[in-house]
Amino acid sequence: MNSLSKILVFAALSIFSVAVADAQVVASDSVLQNKNVKSRLKVGGYGEINYGRNFYSDHVSRYSQPEEHKNDPSHGRFDIPHAVIYMGYDFGKGWSFGTEIEFEHGGNGIAYEKEDEEGGEWEQETEKGGEVELEQFWIQKSFASWANLKMGHIVVPVGLNNAYHEPLNFFTVYRPEGEDIIMPSTWHQTGASFWGRYGDWRYEAQFLAGLNADNFTNTGWIHKGPKSPLEFDVANKYGGAVRIDNYSVPGLRIGISGYYGHTIGNTYPAEKNGASTTYKGKVAIGSIDFTYKGYNWIVRGQADYGYLSDAAQLKYMYNRLNSKSPYKHSAFVSGNAYAIGIEAGYDVFSQIQCLRADNQKLYVFGRYEQYNPYASNTNNTPYDYTQVKRMAVGVNYHPIKQIAIKAEYSNRFLKSLYNNEPSVNIGVAYEGWFF
User: Fold this and answer.
1) What predicted TM-score, i.e. pTM, was given to this entire model?
2) What is the pLDDT of residues 111-146, one digit of tens each?
3) Under 8 Å CB-to-CB from 304, ≥6 apart: which residues?
4) What secondary structure letter does DSSP report for 334?
5) What Cα–Cα distance (Å) separates residue 393 from each residue in 50, 277, 370, 414, 423?
6) In this structure, are residues 19 and 139 in contact, taking their beta carbons and an 8 Å threshold?
7) CA–CA distance, 58 with 77 (Å, rounded to integer)
């Protein structure tokens, strides 16, 4: 290599080295400048993995023939009730996007279920989205902290379960039963919401597609009301929900919420004549709930009451009688339903200095609730097994803030004619933002 070539090679290497060094300095400066910049993208989620052993019969006639199933064997199951992925993005200028995808019971397609309401008949569940649900999908415009407009598929925050449904917001392994039985959980529908927070008050008002009365049942009241076997949500009828929370007392949040809407005739295709054009199926729900956190205690409670007009007519609606319909609910539906519950847990690790310093927590808790999705005997037809009192005792261990390991013993107390339903459940749950 001649002298000129050596000089050119040396110059090229020098230029390349300087360029790389400059790039590293720029990159380093960029990292330093953006350390305190909040990311526009947020990703998180929550999930539960549970094991349960039920020490009572799972036979379809355990209520119609309780004596025959008093000594039936126990049964157990592993379950993934919810595995949820959150994702949101801040576009700027007050515009943001949010979505929540939920995998229920580990599935992602059609599932078989035994329908006790249909005499134990095996049915394929073809609920919208199968066992994967788009629980939230919305665009939001924020004008100020006290004025936000959200449009899309949103959570309906009626009751404690729906407003605070993540697994670290309750002590039991599964969501508290009462609200989970009588109302959709998590209740989510397409509509628009205006919400905000001003001082110690948070408020929200929603306009929604109506529920479908063809999905109401004697053992679940309106629980399946938002479900649609179609590729869209029918909106021949409409509903509205409101919620107000107050935070004036340190450690205490107390809220009231409610829903009102018409449900009969919210089907496809819309009937020109017939019962669905005569009756309304008005649903009205009122709820009060609270959460208190202080002095190493967490206490939560709620009370819900629901009313349904024209309940006696639902059994005779065309879609419920049509054998080719996806509904086919043959039982009467109640004109009233209720659920009340309270739970309290104390952090015993708060009294152990080394564990308290490590921010580990062990809550010993108890829960009591009672509920009835069939609180009124429609057409003098009783389903007494729907009246339930339930207690649960157990522990929640938090090795870190985002993880809870749960264990409980519970028992459902039914009327004396029926057999009580004890069980043991163990679960692990997480909730948090990944970034």
Assistant:
1) 0.86
2) 556 555 555 555 655 444 446 888 999 999 999 999
3) 159, 178, 179, 182, 183, 285, 286, 287, 338, 339, 340
4) -
5) 16, 49, 15, 18, 11
6) no
7) 12
